[in-house]
Amino acid sequence: MRSFDHDMLREIYEQPEAIRRTIALYTRGAALNSDFVLPLAEWNSAHGEVLIAASGSSRHSGLAAEILLEDLCGLSVDVEYASEYSCRGGENPRHPSIIVLSQSGETSDTLASLREARRRGQKTLAITNVEESTMAREADLSLPLAAGKEKAIPATKSFTCQLVVLALLSYYEGLSRGRLTEKDVADYINDLQKLPEIIEKQLPTWEKAMAGLARKYKSAATFLFLGRGIHYAIAREGALKLKEASYVHAEGYPSGELKHGPNALVSDRVPLVVLCTVDPGSEASVLRHQLTVQLLHDLRKQDANVIAIANSGDRAVADQVADCIFLEPVSEYLTPILEVIPLQLFAYFMALEHGVDVDRPRNLAKAVVEPSFP
């Protein structure tokens, strides 16, 4: 068995098994587990409105969930910073159901959001990695992850397991609202169950590639991470991982927003990481891919340094960029679970290049539990 120098790398490699455990918790074969389905029946608001409150990486999984729940289920979803929602005051006349996301289940801002929602009489759902956590106990409904204990401060396996549970939640909501059929759900679950093996096969290749890219780009002053649609959430997460793990500045933007200001930053010292995967079976995904390829073409004219994340064999992307990391193609809504892992590895190796204690970055804690105000 391989030994790892750091908890973060070990936990990156634990993701296939963590994802398997989490899927198994909520499914029976290619169907949703009835123990998971029955408590959800009275959770959502009558008007199909949902508010997601979270911080840090958990908020990024919430951004991905916004796309899933709107596209697959027809729900109306807002995503709030927990630190803002918990102290806004006033009342929300729409009275949405609330999802709180937290690795620890103890994050003070997110816990305050949960308690504010309960004070208002709103239905609450907690998704955490600690089944006995305060959030799990206080919410009307708890959906635990099966990621296992995560020691490194940068979230890796808890993040991908959040994406898995949120995908399963979207399958349930889509089915219950008549937007998905039983066959649709079975197909989605079958695809989800294939992900751990796909990740296991690609992890060594990603590790080697990202170690090399970290050496190549270690002197960069900042990075811009770009993604469209559901992949914007992963661009945000990739940028956050790089900041917290390696102390290298990075920002995540929707790809189409680059020319609305941030493009002025692009130079030899400001590389870009562009998510450009595609699901050929999705018309919207194909359009996003075409638009992103055109953006890559324009960036090539600027002599920009671009690292692209693309489908295996996608020469339309690879021929436009300095470096390309390939993923095995999967459906549009599952791709984020794959594409975030090379970005986790990039953050890890950039941290090593900069001499950072990657498991315990300065000024950060696994759970922010101190009050935000007196």
Could you explain how this protein is built, in words?
This protein is an alpha/beta fold. It contains 13 helices and twelve strands. The strands form three sheets. The protein has a five-stranded parallel β-sheet, with helices on both faces. The longest helix is centred in the middle third of the chain and has 36 residues, at 182-217. The radius of gyration is 20 Å and the shape is globular. The relative contact order is 0.14. The model has no long low-confidence stretch (mean pLDDT 94).
Please specify the SSE layout and strand pairing:
Layout lengths: L6 H7 L1 H12 E2 L2 E2 L1 H7 L8 E6 L1 H18 L2 E6 H4 L11 E6 L5 H12 L4 E5 L5 H5 L2 E4 L12 H20 L5 H36 L4 E6 L3 H16 L2 E6 L17 E4 L7 H19 L4 E6 L3 H4 L4 E5 L7 H19 L21
Parallel strand pairs: 3-4, 3-5, 5-6, 6-7, 8-9, 8-10, 10-11, 11-12
Antiparallel strand pairs: 1-2
Helix pairs in contact: 2-8, 2-9, 4-8, 4-10, 8-9, 9-13, 10-13
